[in-house]
Every structure is written in structure tokens, then in C-alpha cells.
Amino acid sequence: MNGEAWVIGIIGGSGLYAIDALEDAQWIAVKSPWGEPSDEILCGRIGPVQVRFLPRHGRGHRVLPGRLNARANIDALKRAGATDILAISAVGSLAEDLPPGHFVTVDQFIDNTRGRASTFFDNGFVAHVSMGDPVCPRLSNFAAAAVARAGGEVSEGATYLAMEGPQFSTRAESRLYRQWGAHVIGMTGMPEAKLAREAELPYALLAMVTDWDSWREGEAAVDVGEIIAQMQANAELARKAVELFCNALPEKREPSPIDTALDDAVITNPDKFDPELVARLGAVAGRLFARASDG
After folding, report:
1. Residue 88: enclosing H or E segment and its boundaries?
2. Which member of 75, 107, 111, 213 is catalytic?
3. Would you say the C-alpha torsion 44, 49, 50, 54 has a positive or negative sign?
């Protein structure tokens, strides 16, 4: 994999349903054994970089956060050739220094979701990937630099609290999350980041702050109308940042340790693999199976 080409998977969050800068753009349906992705994938390029864009909630924002098929989304992006994923998400702020309109790269997660399919693995193929450092620092650095060049206010390093939703937090919950050390809150970052790691895809999350969550004394509760207005302003800057992000990537993509995240993660003996599950894992873990057959 030394010096390969970049193929950047972009997962567009609320308000970001297309990328104007894409050249030779074409929507392509990608089938996944994990079900239906949120939408077709918009394939094209920005300069020399191939891009695979997936609107997380579908065009027209039709998929509820808790109903997102994150497994199909990640699997489809890998099947479409993505080598890395830059996810963009609208979030609420739990920190005074992250006001609405601000951008921040996420470096940690607290998963407070419930009942979502959060792994590709099952009986017959047991694996435990490391999530101590859940994002790719290389991509995160590129993303923060791109926002700054686009004229946005950006910080690096925040803990993202993933809540179930679709309701917003109570004031008590919001204050509790601050005590936990969370800086921003959203409904979609998990299990997306976990699944990207299982699929050996370096992942970065660029969070766009739309509102103060409900922890501030004397502040009105979160209002969806205000969120939408800020979301639209954020999305315009995000589209510009994505273009600058792609144009600033090194000519060749050097290998990442995340490219081989499954090397020491699989526990099940090969003679006990479930053939049906192995077939479904063709994109996610196909590298391992190909290596085993070669050896």
C-alpha cells in the first residue's frame, strides 16, 4: 500500500447533502450485504483526489438518526473504493469556548446510544478492535487546517457525546454530560466511528456547532429553527473546507496503522469461521481472507 492514491469518503451531516466542487460527479447505487445505505454514493473528484460522498441522512434528510444503517454506509463506502473517511456532523455545544458557528475536530467519543447495530462481527467471526484512539490524527489535522483556510473558526480535539435522540437533551442530562467531560453532543457519531475502525478505514469527524445544548443558565432550550439557520451557514463553509481539504492532501497516501487494524483483533480460529458471515465481511475484512488464501 506504499504511496497509493487517496480515495476520500465524505459522510455529509445535517445540511450537507452534496458537494458543489465535485467534477465528473455521478450518483451510483452501491449494494451492501448489510442492508440499504442512506443513499446512493456521489462519485467524482476534487482536483486529483477521488471522492465518494454519502449524505448520512439521505438527500432531503429522510432518515432518523437512530434508524441510520451505519453498517451499510461504511461497507458501501469501502466497496466504492474509499481509503479514508472524513465525517461531517452538526453538534450542540457543551463548552463555553465552542459557540454556534464554530468547528472542532473530534478526538474522543462517549457512546450513550442504545440498541444500534454497532459491529460487523458476530458468532463465527469474533474480533475486538482497539478504540483507545478512535480517530485518525492525520485526517483530523488536514480537516482543521482546511476549515481555517476557508475562513472558519476551528479548534482541535473534543470529546463527542453520542446520544440516542431524536429528542434533544433535558437540562439535567446536558449538565451531566458536561460533568462526564464531553464538549459536543450529537446523534450520529456512534457507532459510525466504531464501524469505520472495524473496516480498517481511517476516520476523522469534523463537528459543526449549531447551538448551545440545554446546560446554560438563563438560556432558552434548544430550538430546531435556530439550529437549521446555523446549520445552513455551517454547511456553506463546510463545502468550501472539503474542497480545500482534498486539494491540500499529499500527492500520495502513505500507509496508516489503521489500514491493518484487524491484524491482531480477530480471536476466532480460521477453522471455526462462519462461511455466511465471512461472505458478508468481504469488503470489511477481505484483506485478511485474501492474505490467508495466499499463505
Report:
1. strand 84-93
2. 213
3. negative
Alpha helices in 5-54 (DSSP H): none
* Residue of 232, 217, 3, 1 lying closest to 96 (CA atoms): 217
Contact 89, 193 (CB under 8 A): no
The residue assigned the cell 471522492 is: 51
Interval 70-89: pLDDT, tens? 999 999 999 999 999 999 99
Distance CA 154, CA 190 (A): 22
The closest of 131, 178, 138, 188 to 158, measured between CA atoms, is 178
Closest CA to 189 of 253, 113, 264: 113
- 211 carries an active-site annotation: yes
The domain locations on the chain are 7-294
Which pTM value belongs to this model?
0.95
Q: Judge contact between 23 and 46, C-beta under 8 A.
A: yes
Is 274 marked active-site? Answer: no
Q: What is the CA radius of gyration of the chain?
A: 19
CA–CA separation, 56 vs 17, rounded Å?
A: 8
Residue with cell 473534543: 158
Q: Is 23 exposed, middle or buried (0-12, 13-18, 19+ CB in 10 A)?
A: exposed
Question: What's the grid cell of residue 27?
Answer: 450518483
156 strand-pairing partners: 105
pLDDT digits (tens, 9 = 90+) for 202-231: 999 999 999 999 999 877 777 777 788 888
From the candidates 39, 211, 259, 271, which is the catalytic residue? 211
CA atoms within 13 A on the CB side of 65: 20
SS3 (DSSP) at 98:
coil
What values do phi and psi take at 186, rounded to 5? -150, 180
Question: Domain 7-294, what architecture?
Answer: 3-Layer(aba) Sandwich (3.40)
